[in-house]
Fold:
Amino acid sequence: MARVTFTSNLRRHVDCATVEAKGQTVREILNNVFESNDRLRSYILDDQAALRKHMTILVDGKRVSDLAGLSDVVQPKSEVYVMQALSGG
Structure:
């Protein structure tokens, strides 16, 4: 199973511990995580089920390219990082 880690700035807003989840795409992995944490879904995805503009997901160190469909491939031993973009000065 892939390991899904949520950065500390995201965890300040939503209770989301690091978990392991099954799936072959980012979408499948996230859907499995959301089964036990539905509040997290609305924080990461918009009303069209696409990745919100202020969110970034990395799979094995590479930013996902399909922000709407989240169809990027995830391997069974992949490391998935979900983070909230920070801005300001």
Q: What stands out?
A: The two ends are 38 Å apart (CA to CA).
